[in-house]
Amino acid sequence: MRPALLLASFAIALPATAQFTIQTSNTTADLRGIHNVGNGVAWASGTHGTVLRTEDGGYVWQSCSVPPGGEKLDFRGVQAFDANTAIVMSSGPGDQSRLYKTTDGCHTWKLLFTNPDKDGFWDCLWLHRTGHGILLGDPVDSRFALFETSDGGVNWIRDKSDGLKFEGKPIAAFAASNSLFAQTSTGYSRAFATGGPGGAFLYEAWNTEKKWSRAKIPVASGTDSSGVFSLGMRYSGSMCSHCEKAPPRFVAVGGDYQKPEEAAGTSAFSNDGGYQWQYSQTQPHGYRSSVAYDEQNKTWITVGPNGTDISTDDGRNWLPVRPSASLHEPEDADRNWNALSLPYVVGPKGRIGRLDSASLKLKTGK
Questions:
Q1: What is the helix (H) or strand (E) element at residue 41, kind and residue range?
Q2: Burial (0-12, 13-18, 19+ Cβ within 10 Å), 295
Q3: The pTM is what?
């Protein structure tokens, strides 16, 4: 879509502290795409055809060549596989939504796919090393535009399932952080979250018939600027959301991006694979555009324009993060972020940060 305190009984929540090291990006582009490949390699993307790459954990971010015809494109998503190979997704009306791929460390790019819908607008891209991928766009004629690939993005097939259609008020997706898909390490991701006037929902098709179902998510919705902006999943066990043992846990964040300070309706969670959702008891302290799970600290992290929050109970309660004064961090070190791919965060005006996971401390008092 086009969007340019109680923790437990007798506990009082105090702000958490974390170290965000601000890195030098050498760009003023608005960054919304970020993907940490591992072993020091990460890719970032943003406005004005901007694509960045690091091979040393962010000490140096290299500016990539601009994909052909991409000087005015807004690359809101990037999916990388190693230091040489990545696909970027631009978001824009009609043919301004495109996919480009590089296999030589972003020296050259090849146009893979252009939005075939003149009234369409791409929102989120997910790809796996196996070659499976899924691409989500705003609805066209009251049906979500969803494409799948099995060959790494060379060919895309539109999903024409009836479950992607809807009636009544429009439902939409948000191209805020390229994190509307529930992502796993298994190579299978058929769940995404929505918002808009028609409401916020989880669309899910993990059954063998690949039939789409949906469940209401209790976050702010009902307007063009509200709904779920990011969907996270913490998973253990088999890839069966219907299984009684260890179903996936979902966390959804969002709110209304036109009301960034409004805390109500910014988070919800599900412990049963997305069938039933609950409103977070303590909400993030403003609209949030991205959420991710820090496995090392068993902590969820969510970011937005007015700050960062963490949860250690799978999204039931959130605590605001404040920079650690002892680390002499800038006052805005925890603020104004768009997207996460831990340990990296990106934001407006070329902002890139790296979270020191070991410094993430939750403080509570009785």
A1: strand 41-46
A2: exposed
A3: 0.90
